[in-house]
Amino acid sequence: MPGPQWQVLDPGVRARVQDLHERGVAAINAGRIGSGGRLLRAGLRQLGWPHTTDSGDSAALTARILISLAPVEIQRGNTDAGLGLLAEAGRLVAPSDRGLLLQQRGLLLVLVGRLADGLAAMDQAIPLLAGNGGSAVLARTLLNRAMLHHIAGRARLANADLDRCEPIARAHGMDRLLAKVMHNRGCCALLTGDIPGALRDLEAARAGFAVHAEQLLPVVAVDRARVLLAAGLCTEAVTELDGALALFRGQRLTQEYGEAELARAQAALAVGDPTGARLWARRAERRFRRRGNETWAAVAMLARLRTDFPTDRRGATAFRADADSLAARLAELGLPNDAEAAALLAARASIVLGRHTEAATALTAHPGPAALLDTRLLRTLALAELGRATGNRGQTFRQARAGLALLREHRGRFGSVDLQTGTAALGSELAAIGLAEALARPVPAQVFRWLELSRAQAFGLRSVRPPTDPVIVDAVAELRQLDRVVREAELAGRTEPAARRRCVELARTIRAHGWQADGWQADGVGQRHAAADFAAVAAELAARDSAMISYLVHRDRLRALLVVDGKATLHHLAQWPRVAEAIGRLRSDLDALCGRSLRSSLDVVVRSSARRQLDVLTESLLGPMTARLRDRDVVVVPTDTLSGMPWGLLPTLRGRPVTVTPSATAWLYGQGSTLPSAPGPPLLIAGPDLAYADAEITAIAKLYPDSTVLAGPMATVAAALPALAGRPVAHIAAHGHHDQENVLFSRLDLSDGPLMAYDIQELGAAPDHVVLSSCDVGRMVVRTGDEILGFTAALLYSGTRTVVSSVARVPDDAVTDVMYAYHRALSNGVPSPRALADCTANDSLIPFVCFGAG
User: Fold this and answer.
1) How many helices, marked H, and strands, marked E, lie in the chain?
2) Considering only Cβ atoms within 10 Å of each terminal Cβ, which end of the chain, N or C, has fewer?
3) Distance CA 456, CA 787 (A)
């Protein structure tokens, strides 16, 4: 029985329907889903749908509107309704629009998590769309298929589709789609481990969306956060995700919101917040299930499993069953990387249960060809754990070393010290298991080797200057000018909140730009030096009649590896919380004594407290080793907050040359460094607003008649930076600021603004020896793996052999005489550690430290 027939449409009606369709699609593309849906339904009412059907031209127009309306229902969580609209469109669609229907069906199947079905639909659609020429719909379909290939870990196929998509989009002036191409390229770069490339592409996408699709900015922020997590910058990723989630709350992008919640769970776990990670993962899982998206719900379950990993046999059986089941489910859904990760969690649970044969069988499976770095690191960790559980020390060490080698290769792709130091967090469990195994049956040389494999690895890489960008040059100039405004306001007793906020914003922009610098790995010369051999370090120490103390914390207890007379011994010291508390109290006392006129009684109390903490720390840090040190010079390799210890103030070390170095490797290679072939005269700089700076520089200049002096209005950043390059000695007397929250912008005040730690990487050749005589710019932020950041650290990374700076505030009036004595000894050929020890050997509490190679 024939159905009702369409009446011939009035041309005016057709025009109104087409206008409603175009406006509806535009509204949806602009993120106004509700408005777009209303416009499309108005068009359908004009056509009489759903009460009439036909196979004529009117049916084709109805089909097009139904195709456009289907994603509105999907976005609202009405999966069945959306797919039903496409089924209805399938009965009405014109042959020439079948490619359009298939591509839309593919996209909607992806949105509900049916990735394999979505890919099949797009594979059918693309030849049909290509047959109509390079259409805009073809470009969108290629983009969507690229996204599918990316999700499945097929970066090569994804990039091939993006390469086809981009010229079509350019030809059609599709600026919004071009921004999406860059977004997808960034995601593919992350897949291949190219963190700087990913950040560059995502920044290009962000710039495009800011103009053409502002509502998609939080989507880019989520992927940017994923990149930061892959680089070990977990706190920065949390900040990025919290901002994105706030923006999503005002939109109806429920899928994207769920993905942001999932990434937030991963970030919470990375910063050591398992409770928060579990909460975020459950939220994401519930959201995906409400949408009917079982694929993403399964990925959220994997995040929850990572959070719930059992540390003992209780719960391990149920966990293992859940992980095995999830691995099979993820494999069915076409997510091989996630399936592999779930299978590895199951294998690790088997190890916890003592089912070593089962775990070994599971771990013999070959990793997927496109396994992500975190999955490969997880596999080596599981194999190392299996070795430890079965008493196979060789396997434990071999697998932990293999994982750290993967991480070293990954780190070599970064030009930014910020990223290089952040990546240590990714291998913290591997470093810990290798060191724990070495400590279980300690052979001192083996413990030494693992300490060097697991700390301050960024010092083994060549430094890279960030790419030049006029926008960043302007941002640095603006930051310098505004920082000066803030400083002048502080001196006048005012605040400049707007300028402060802008400084924070500029610093964030400049720092992020630095992350985009490629490393040296591609040309094979990225490694500055390999980990030092114990015998070589021991021989160098013996030749210098020196002792080295390498500290570590294991099971909440401080330990030390003492290397002296060619031998190493391991010593168990104090409980770590006691040591950390004493360091904090000492620093507070030193800061309180500096630059203040304390009442006599209070001065006595504070000095007494400082000396009490020094006595506690002397016993805690040196106790059983004191006799073996005798009168030797000491090289200290600190851990954690010991990097901020004023070692020369400890009674046992007072008057003794002490050098503090990030690692034994850095110290050893520093001994082989030589001064520049054309060193030039010393550089002396006096900053503004420091009462004794001019007198200090004038006195020191008498020791160096050929020195270059920058003082008063001449002491500018523009003059200081080029003057620093390659100097044998540089002395800067200027107010310093250690920025705990943004250490790359720790700074020294010069007459035209701050000289920042960020600026140091611009030096073509590092100064050999730098003295920073004011404030506390010897303080550092210590990241996982004893990676350090700060102004002093920036100089060491740049290649400076020795930096003398203070780890707490210093009394400016007392420093002039100390610095004069120091340079007098230095100019007479006395080594820096000895010169510093001699000029601070009296009873004063001046916390200068000699950092680097000495």
Assistant:
1) 36, 16
2) N
3) 5
Q: Tokens representing 503? A: 């400084």
Q: Residue 311, class by beta-carbon neighbours within 10 Å (0-12 exposed, 13-18 middle, 19+ buried)?
A: exposed
Q: Report the alpha-carbon distance of residue 569 to residue 628 in Å, rounded.
A: 10
Strand 546-554 relative to strand 633-637, pairing = parallel
Summarised one tens digit per residue, pLDDT across range 440-477 is: 999 989 999 999 998 888 877 766 666 678 888 898 88
Q: What is the pLDDT of residue 466?
A: 66
Specify the pLDDT at position 75.
Answer: 77
Q: Say how far apart CA 749 and CA 486 lie, in whole Å.
A: 12
Alpha helix stretches (DSSP H) within 291-335: 294-307, 316-332
Give the amino acid at 780. M
Q: Tokens 């977004």, residue?
A: 183
Phi, psi of 336, deg, nearest 5: -65, -40
Helix axes 98-111, 57-75, angle to 10 degrees: 10
Confidence at residue 839, expressed as pLDDT on a 0 to 100 scale = 94
* Spatial contact of 327 and 342, defined as CB atoms under 8 Å apart: yes
For residue 532, give both structure tokens: 């030092």
Smallest Cα–Cα separation from 748: which of 732, 736, 759, 738? 736
Residue that has been written with the tokens 């999700």 in this structure: 151
Integer Cα distance of 398 and 402 in angstroms? 6
What is the three-class DSSP state of 452? helix
Name the one residue in this structure whose structure tokens are 């991963």: 266
Closest CA to 511 of 548, 481, 479, 554: 479
User: Is the peptide bond prior to 218 cis by the omega test (within 30 degrees of 0)?
Assistant: no
Joined tokens for residue 365: 């499976």
**683 and 767 in contact (C-beta within 8 Å)?**
yes
Three-point CA angle 575, 579, 585, nearest 5°: 150
Burial of 274 (0-12, 13-18, 19+ CB in 10 A): middle
DSSP, res 518 = B
Give the contacts of 440 (CB within 8 A, at least 6 positions apart). none
Give the separation between CA 406 and CA 426, rounded to whole angstroms.
11
Cα Rg for the chain, rounded, in angstroms?
A: 32
| Angle at 378 (CA atoms; ends 517, 450), nearest 5 degrees | 75
**CA-closest candidate to residue 747, choices 359, 438, 379, 487:** 487
**Cα separations (Å) of 9 from 61, 69, 94, 452?**
11, 21, 17, 80
pTM comes to 0.85
**Cα angle: 22, vertex 25, 28; to 5 degrees:** 150
Give the closest residue to 157 by CA, choosing from 119, 128, 127, 193. 119
Q: Is the dihedral of CA 802, 766, 680, 672 positive or negative?
A: positive
pLDDT class of 31 with cuts at 50, 70, 90: confident
Between 527 and 637, name the one with better pLDDT: 637
Question: Which residue in 10, 12, 128, 8 sits closest to 56, CA to CA?
Answer: 8
Tens of pLDDT, residues 754-797: 999 888 887 878 899 999 998 888 888 888 888 888 999 999 98
Report yes or no: 530 and 524 within 8 Å, Cβ to Cβ: no
Rounded distance between C-alpha atoms, residue 789 and residue 786, angstroms: 10
**Average pLDDT in the chain:** 88
User: Would the pLDDT of 727 be above 70?
Assistant: yes
